[in-house]
Write the structure tokens for this entry.
Amino acid sequence: MIAGYYTYPKVTAAGGNIIEQYGSLKNVPEEKRGNFSQTTVHMNGSHGSNLNIGGNNVTQSTTVTLEQMAEVNKFAESARGLVPLLGLDTQQQDQVLETVKALEEESESPTPKRNVLVELMGKARDLAVLGTASGMVTAFEHLANGAIAAIGG
């Protein structure tokens, strides 16, 4: 039961055969696997949503709104101005600026892909942060905290 709703999962005959023969989909040899795609959907706060994956009468698209594109463009413009002030060496600056250029090119395409925009902004952020001394300290801090939490500390 999830938040007051019951789910009724079903195992198909093919799924039953996999469980009987291999115990888990992870154990199926690569050459025995058919073509498939994995879709993960998170639906929060929605009562009465319908979901159809792979239906022949359903299309799905992710559009980028004008407001979102304005944010992408603000990020790119700000990043170009900030990169020289971060104390990065020339190679690190070049990597960040190349990523920002790729972001700008994607944003100017007729159909910009939201996931690519997000990935490029994240990459630019990570390159800049990890190139600074404080970024390295922050990365080390997260590494240490994660390890401590992992062992129950």
